[in-house]
Amino acid sequence: MQDFNLTGSIVAIATPFKANGEIDVDAFDHLIDFHLENGTDGIVVCGTTGETPALTGDEDAFLIERTVKKVGGKIPVIAGSGSNSTEECIRYSRKAEAIGVDAVLVVGPYYNKPTEKGMYQHFATVADAIDVPIVLYNVPSRTGSNISVDTAIKLANNFDNIVGIKEASGDLTLFAELIAKRPEGFKIYSGDDFLSAPANLIGADGCISVIANIIPQDFAKLMKDSMEGDVAEVNKLFYQYRDLMDLLFIESNPIPVKTALAAMGLLEEEFRLPMCTMEDANKELLLNEMKKQGII
After folding, report:
1. Residue positions in the annotated binding site?
2. Which of 92, 137, 189, 241 is labelled catalytic?
3. pLDDT, tens digit, for every residue of 168-178?
4. pLDDT in tens, 120-141
5. What φ, ψ does residue 36 adopt, rounded to 5°?
6. Sorting pLDDT into bands at 50, 70 and 90, what band is 191?
7. Domains parsed from the chain with CATH numbers
8. 166 is catalytic
9. Residues at site: Part of a proton relay during catalysis (predicted)?
10. Residue 3: pLDDT above 90?
11. Residue in 95, 120, 166, 224 annotated catalytic
12. Annotated binding site for pyruvate: which residue ranges?
């Protein structure tokens, strides 16, 4: 297996837009600086939180290249490059590899619901086509399909460049099964902020996180403490931010987190349809919790 040592707090970075719909490059650069200054361990660009379904292929490539250059090797950069077309996934992944990312995040094929055999063949074909490390991404609630534990472990054992999985099924028992069966060096990341600390306490390697967008320093500490088994510190931070974690999913991600970032003055409260502004009552709940925590 390829050596891939990223652990801890990995932010799924948001994509800022201007009122005219263009990418706000200055705000994006500032977000990257915000994470470099506050202890984030890695960045996922063009993930779900980055509103990737609403971006063009050229915009994806631009953001990936911008991130790689801006980060300058200080922390690892992972690019979302998944598709429900295997050929398209290979094309996106090769482009990200050529730009110089440290890994690609490849979501399970969505909508077309492959069989377990088809799921394995999809990732095997992608892994054969590229050299860059691959992190699998299992998020059944969005894709309508599931990367089973057996398929993930079989892929990890058969391909040196399949180095980890982002597990976002919301089921802690799956983390335990993955951890028990994984080959040495295979990383297991939570895709759910709420389960990230419990998963780390039983052996996971960190989180590809939404809440890290707004509390990067504290979330990095939560990841470090939980991976080190410091239960007292974990409980302190987890229960401090438990309500905020919930509120960041009161509407579809990334609507709440971008609303929060706008309240912090880090980007404009702009979305691309079908993402839209929050319902007033939900926004009030979110902003009140942020005020309670002293974030705004």
Report:
1. 49, 208
2. 137
3. 999 999 999 99
4. 999 999 999 999 999 999 999 9
5. -65, -35
6. very high
7. 8-228 (3.20.20.70)
8. yes
9. 48, 111
10. no
11. 166
12. 49, 208
